[in-house]
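Run: sequence + zinc ion -> complex structure.
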Amino acid sequence: MPDVLSAPLVVEFPFTRSLGPVQSAFLTGLRERVLLGVRTNDGRTLVPPVEYDPVTAEEIRDLVEVAPTGTVTTWAWNHAPRRGQPLDTPFAWVLVRLDGADTALLHALDAPGPDAVHTGMRVRVRWAAERSGAITDIACFEPYDGEAARPTGHSGAFADAVSGVVVPARLDYTYSPGRAQSDYIRALAERRTVGERCPSCRKVYVPPRGACPTCGVATAEHVEVGPRGTVTTFCIVNIKAKNLDIEVPYVYAHIALDGADLALHARIGGIPYDQVRMGLRVEPVWTEGTRHPDHYRPTGEPDAAYDTYKELL
Ligand SMILES: [Zn+2]
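>> structure
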């Protein structure tokens, strides 16, 4: 068994979501410590609210206040809270049907241990000290044995309503590229580009995935390709990416390395962005300490004829 690479990988980005009238009222309500649901035409109250009836698909806009107390309908114990979760000590994930609602809301329940949690137990909202119009305005739920709280009769109309939320998304995992791409990555460390040839259709895949997606057979024959290649198609990037120190505009291109039957993509440098063209011949430019070319630059050769790369577009 060849040595397969593996590395931690984090994908992280802020996701900005605009809110329609129902979600806006719900989240603004949380900021003001008011819990709002939406009433369907057949009289059910949905919390958290949605904008269309999940059964009939009718548009629903009739906001109704429910109580900050409710009943656990099901739960699961979280032994090891992760970064960004509602509590940093072990807690229960619970579905809570708030008093006055017909559906349940997912949140955290602060409890000393799983023995203290059961379906049917009564809970109430613990509000966050600082609230901004987000689901985290509910810090968590806590056990409660008092009377059901009464809604205040709020209409759901607010001055200064929340119109959008920024939700940080983060995926934190271990990635293994598999046998074929491990070989590809190791070759890159020696500044070589290695693909694999399909034994059936003879296509050379770069980067290799270990199998031919057309023929459905394993690929194993290593084929060194490049280092030069041909721009098959490209785009001009005009939006500056966060944490990427490249001046805009710049060109990102599909490049078919010589001997490869699949184009890979990379930045083109060493030429004004408005002079990049299909058929341009390019070569990699490496910088110290990286495992892939920083960009590709023109070789000065005549452009490749369209017929030589038209199957690679
Ligand atoms: Zn094939």
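>> summary
The pocket of zinc ion is lined by residues 198, 200-201, 203, 212, 214-215 (CB under 6 Å). The chain has a mean pLDDT of 94.
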